[in-house]
Amino acid sequence: MNTVIHKAETRGHANHGWLNSYHTFSFANYYNPERMNFGVLRVLNDDTVQAGMGFGTHPHDNMEIISIPLEGDLEHKDSMGNVAVIKEGDVQVLSAGTGVTHSEYNKNKDKEVKFLQIWVFPNKKNITPKYDQISLKDIEKENEFYQILSPNKDDQGVWIHQDAWFHIGKFTKEKTVEHQIKKAGNGVYAFILDGEVEINSEKLSKRDGMGIWNTDVIRIEAKEKARVLLMEVPMSR
Fold it and tell me: Of 91, 113, 135, which residue is a domain's last?
């Protein structure tokens, strides 16, 4: 088993006033040659956008972009004609493919919006762009991981062009679970949304991250009430 740990306080940081962003991996003006990616997981940004502010229209191509709101409401518009609001309890995916432009704004004028912006390299280039979002409220479970993303159109959650599976789990104190890797050769990047957990004897707190590969199973124990995002991805493009 191989592991890498990224403590919350060691992440890259950029505060633009309207946007306060923490970067687990190199992004924009934050560059760390030892933190370029974890397998095909390229970007993990922890963003807070001030009331009424947001990202103006900008382009993407050949990237799978996943947004997971943690608090507040985020309005999305894109060149495919999609206009939507995503909020806590939703997950959104934009497969940029041959190219798409979009904007993201804080829908509310009186409170912040907090969300994770995640980029994954696709396994197919120049596909037709697509958009999808779902509510997790009908599939979420207590004290076990539930799937929110996969490579399969007909599976639970949203789907992307990559052999990747994302799961979220909410756990009570002292709950222990084991998570099985879906595909041989994949690794898992665990990101602690809240609380404190122990993964394979390593203690992790809110916004810490841990990459694990060359293993078939991961053991997670909640040291207090916790919420964890697991991102299973291929380790090579």
Answer: 135
